[in-house]
């Protein structure tokens, strides 16, 4: 039986899937990719009731796991769905129920994150940019509460150093087996890779108007000065 002991959180198309898959490949970890999110977080039922059910389902999964630590990946978009017009209210709701779960937040440069979301899903630029700005608010919110923050760029250009930092945060030893997570069957086939590629740290281009809409958040996140 495992302990429900880690959440991997970040914006969609921001590296949450890769990080969760790498962690899942660790012999002491069992990390799922958004288990229970769609049918519990993204619906119209009263949010606190949804969150209680979400935690209960996660704890049941942990009870059936043979790992030491069970965890789940959650996107900031799923968290925001708890109260889509509420500023940081969805964060207060989510972490009001899950404040004791160690959290790793991963952020990707907003230009690349927004461009990937638009290209992969057809989401309008304005909505993708708005979602990314919320993810920066979430990062700051969690950082102030002791979460570990890493970036997608660090993960793909310095994977060993980044994963060792993550393992230290979770108080488990680093394992070379984590690199096998790039081929995980839990990832969508189109996201699987033979290895971690530093080329993925390249910054994408977005239309000038979109850049202007995220420039303050880029600066707050340390991506530009």
- What is the arithmetic mean of pLDDT? 95
The ordered string of helix (H) and strand (E) elements is: EHEHHEHHEHHEHHH
The overall strand count is: 5
Give the CATH superfamily: P-loop containing nucleotide triphosphate hydrolases
Summarize the structure.
With 225 residues, this protein is an alpha/beta fold. The protein is built from ten helices and five strands.
Features:
225 residues, globular, Rossmann fold
What does this entry look like structurally?
There is one protein chain. By secondary structure, this protein is an alpha/beta fold. It has one domain (3-220): P-loop containing nucleotide triphosphate hydrolases (Rossmann fold). Helices cover 48% and strands 13% of the residues. It is built from 10 helices and 5 strands; from the N terminus they run βαβααβααβααβααα. It has helices spanning 16-24, 37-41, 47-63, 76-80, 89-98, 110-121, 125-143, 152-157, 159-169, 208-220; strands at 3-10, 29-33, 69-75, 103-107, 148-151. The protein has a 5-stranded parallel beta sheet, with helices on both faces. α3 runs parallel beside α5 and α7 packs parallel to α10. The radius of gyration is 17 Å and the shape is globular.
Secondary structure layout:
Blueprint (H helix, E strand, L loop, with lengths): L2 E8 L5 H9 L4 E5 L3 H5 L5 H17 L5 E7 H5 L8 H10 L4 E5 L2 H12 L3 H19 L4 E4 H6 L1 H11 L38 H13 L5
Parallel strand pairs: 1-3, 1-4, 2-3, 4-5
Helix pairs in contact: 3-5, 6-7, 7-10
